[in-house]
Amino acid sequence: MKKRPKILVVDDEAVMRESLHDWLSDAGYQVFTAENGPQALEIIEKENLGIVIADLVMPGMDGIELMKQAREILPNIQVIIITAYGSIPTAIAAMKEGAYDYIEKPFCPERVESLLERLVEHQGLIEENLSLRQRLEDRYRFENIIAKSPEMQRVIEVIKVVARSNATVLITGDSGTGKELVARAIHSQSHRRDKPFVAVSCAALPESLLESELFGHEKGSFTGAYAQKKGKFEFANRGTLFLDEIGEMSANIQVHLLRVLEEKAFTRVGGNEEIKVDVRIISATNKDLKKAVARGEFREDLYYRLNVVTIDLPPLRERREDIPLLAEHFLNKFALENQKEVAGFSPEAREFLLRYDWPGNVRELENAIERAVILAKNSLIEVADLPDQSWSLARSALQGKSLKEMEKNHILNVLSETGGNYSQAARILGISRMTLYNKAREYGLDVKKIDNAG
């Protein structure tokens, strides 16, 4: 049986405080009482409370303000508001601010106990979702790459093999697919892992500055060169140099880069001394370099030097199995950074995330989840919390879908997240295992993996 949380009752009316204290104590809860907000905050500072039941209207500090200050002390605390009939609109506003629910005066013990049972179950689901999320992330995480799709699992296998060599690697894929993340994973799995990983964007600087950035320069070699400067090749010696957006590199710098690859040496801008280096080159592009070679925009000999091994990253729309896992990872990350208790996504929000094509790929998904976590008013992210361009397009994609189709997709998503574990999936969905079994048969899903755990 799940341990019951400690409860704090806050009401300026002694009769109400004492009645709730007696009812809840008889029901097996450990109950504290306070007659105003400041007194309640003192108790919250000392006790690891799970639930606060607070009157909406109190002298000095009302229930909504108390809820806000309580969550600064205990971010996970849940709040139930007590309200009179005329204050129901304000109580509903309190729920939009994050209150779990409200109870209207006068109320009976059974109503309070029923509400608390639902809340305790809700907290249990949140804890279970957090635990499941962590287990899933651990299972499908490789050097900060989080993926379960067959396409990305193949990429990970290539990383493991190529990392053991010194071969140059060309990573291709749309913007935002995680090319630098793959480059860092190769470096961290290689024998160079204890040496520098240096990243340079070839599109971020004009040709003159990029040449100096890569190869360094001597004092007085050009206007503004007041001192000798080492380049990224020297800083990356015995380590890895990641050249992002290699397709933007000018013809002049392509010549210099080819020389480094062939001779393991270069000279600084304005210098004569030959500098030997041992650097592994990993490059990345969102362009088709073969077509650039055909157009004369990229050296053919350099192209073949760079792509001894090619790793192509599929866009997010082609590996939708990874979307829920990535979304949960980013939710966990930004909830922690923003100190917000956001436990997951509503079924509608999850469905919209899966339906949207994510033209900006993983980077766009990350930005969308960060915004949603910041704007979320409840423990679950809703459709309205997502960026307009995402969920409005996803909504368009869902037009004409029946409720049964949406339910089938949601069940499939949860089963996918739990690795086909029907017991875990049933608990997350809030239904019995037999109900889930029956729905799976109704929708023609594979029911062979049903476990026998309770």
Question: CATH superfamily of the largest domain, please?
Answer: P-loop containing nucleotide triphosphate hydrolases
Q: Which whole number gives the mean pLDDT?
A: 84
Strand content: 5-15%
Please identify the structural class as seen in this structure: alpha/beta
Helix content: 40-55%
| Quaternary status | single chain
How many domains? The number is: 3
For the largest beta-sheet, the strand count, sense and barrel status come to: 5 strands, parallel
Number of helical stretches of at least 4 residues: 19
User: Strand tally, please?
Assistant: 16
Spatial separation of the terminal alpha carbons: 14 Å
Strand order of the largest sheet: 2-1-3-4-5
Task: Flag low-confidence runs.
Answer: 390-394, 449-454
Based on CA atoms alone, the radius of gyration comes out at: 29 Å
CATH architecture annotation name of the largest domain: 3-Layer(aba) Sandwich
**What's the CATH class of the largest domain, please?**
Alpha Beta
What is the fold-level CATH name, i.e. the topology of the largest domain? Answer: Rossmann fold
- Specify the overall morphology: elongated
